[in-house]
Amino acid sequence: MVTRLSDVAARAGVSVKTVSNVINDYPHITSQTRAKVQAAIEELDYRPNVSARSLRKGRSDFIALAIPEMASPYFAELGAAISRAAKKRGITVLIDQTEGEAAAEKLVLDGMRGQLIDGIIFSPITTSPARIGETETAKPIVLLGERDAGGRLDRVAVDSVQASYDATTHLISLGRRRIAAIGVGGGAGTGSVRRKGYRKALKAAGIAHDPALELAGTGYHREDGAASMRELLALPEPPDAVFCFNDLLALGALRTLADAGLSVPDDVAVVGFDDIEDGRYHSPSLTTVAPDMEWLADHAVALLLDRIAGNGEAARRDLTVPHTLKIRESTGG
Amino acid sequence: MVTRLSDVAARAGVSVKTVSNVINDYPHITSQTRAKVQAAIEELDYRPNVSARSLRKGRSDFIALAIPEMASPYFAELGAAISRAAKKRGITVLIDQTEGEAAAEKLVLDGMRGQLIDGIIFSPITTSPARIGETETAKPIVLLGERDAGGRLDRVAVDSVQASYDATTHLISLGRRRIAAIGVGGGAGTGSVRRKGYRKALKAAGIAHDPALELAGTGYHREDGAASMRELLALPEPPDAVFCFNDLLALGALRTLADAGLSVPDDVAVVGFDDIEDGRYHSPSLTTVAPDMEWLADHAVALLLDRIAGNGEAARRDLTVPHTLKIRESTGG
DNA sequence: TGCGGTTTTTACAACGTTTACCGATTCTGG
DNA sequence: CCAGAATCGGTAAACGTTGTAAAAACCGCA
């Protein structure tokens, strides 16, 4: 039993357009008419047809969030936060798992889900910053993370260089000198930006950086962290501290350390990045860089909605998410 | 620059209808025409307008997945799996976070997102089974989890009684006798069904069940597991094994045990339920009941699509997800 | 009462797609 | 080479909503 606008109109004894006006808060309506219509809507339990509205208005109040994988704790928490932030503003989030595949990312970019989506919040992995900036998308995009798009797209990100500097400096302040880094990567992505902060901190403390202590690994999951840690332990001179570029890597590293019978933080101190819940409850609990996720979600959504609202020509904005270093047991906190 | 069906038609030199026919795989089209149209579609990078199509067809190829919270690992993995399963079939999943609130669940049920959604996969928390069955929804629903809807809705779930029986029996086979349960709950939900299997196993082994060892707690997160474990340790006669009704509870319990300086599994053996990734990498790694998530996702989606396709009158189906007990370090595996 | 001006309501035409209904074209066999 | 069948393509009318523009109702004031 589908209820249409015309059903409501018939019931309220007014025209279809008047009902539409009531729904869309058109100002000039007598409170009497409004009440009548509201009552009819209640009685019939009417809900506007999203498709029809979207077709007519050219707006759907849907946005997409494109992330590599929803099952990864950081992205799961991000998705939850963005959904909440969007819901507050009456809009719905559609989550797109790109699985880090270039093809899927491209599809997100130009496919745009058949014009249903009003805009995208995009957390790219494979697609190069340049390519993203290049793509002439019909709809606004807000970028998340370190990758820049040649300065052409709005972006919301942690100051990863500063955050990594903070994390590394914390390890140095504990008296550690052989500090490894797990997750360094080539290109302009997360891995290379965080390495920059890491090296900067070492340099500031007068510690020469040892390439043997910088491990790239193949990914950003626990297994990659575990494998990298095994490599580090096999070195003639193993590290006394490790800065992992995300929490999953750190949790993997902790597992390897536990297996090796090493004590954390006494033998090796460990710092992560992201502040996912697993790290907070892990034993030992994980010292980590904590971006303000609510802030991030809220501003990313607000930024996108502002563009959608038509501020297409406004200057590009680049927002920095506040972060703190949560010192916990894995560094003796 | 919006491309419409008519643009494609003009380019290919055919009528709008023909293009539509090609897109919808209408059988009687010369391969020549088809090729021409395909080419035009390629060249113009045409994508059908989802709103218009959905308005006309009454179908959107969107389904919703309603879960309590996306950030919880089990649900994050579930969301990922369902999304994948749906994408394989060319349909898109919209994730709804109900946050366990009755209001949100109700909204999902009758709001139905303004008729955009073709159906729902629903993992209810607060809404009572009866209420769900009652609701005369316009669109099909597939239920996930223990809660039954008075036998009126299709459902996909693990045989929780059997699985809990298996888990408890495993602990008994290790020689444990004071086996606690964390997460027991009233009503007809997860907590009570799993308790049933737990008690059954105790009974089968001739162990009297001790109410002091059954903790309800307030939720299903790490903190709840940690708190419950603290209660158990405060007992005059603490348990030598704990069966937690999900992995998060178990991870919380492990944290408390570590803080108390107790050894797992020597002092206390721990079993969880869900097989989330955190448990696999935890130290000690977590013995747990592992439902076949791919199977679950695939069948839930298939079931829903079958209903959507019009098999509304077919008999209700109740599918049992295969599960295995993964024996790991937390029980000496 | 009648008039300008203002407020409130209405009719009609889109938005881009698919479907029902036909008319046109091609193919087959005699 | 033609009748009839099979195949293919075109026209027009929906789907439910909102924007435009115009009509109707109302107001106060002369």
From TrEMBL, chains A, B:
Q: Which PANTHER family match?
A: LACI-RELATED TRANSCRIPTIONAL REPRESSOR (PTHR30146), LACTOSE OPERON REPRESSOR (PTHR30146:SF153)
GO MF, one example? DNA binding
For this protein, the record's CDD domains field holds:
HTH_LacI, PBP1_LacI_sugar_binding-like
Coiled-coil blocks: none
Q: Which Pfam families match?
A: LacI (PF00356), Peripla_BP_3 (PF13377)
Q: Which domain of life is it from?
A: Bacteria
Keyword list (alphabetical) reads: DNA-binding, Transcription, Transcription regulation
User: What's the protein called, per UniProt?
Assistant: LacI family DNA-binding transcriptional regulator
PROSITE patterns per record = HTH_LACI_1, HTH_LACI_2
Give the Gene3D superfamilies listed for this entry: 3.40.50.2300, lambda repressor-like DNA-binding domains
Domain named HTH lacI-type: residues: 3-57
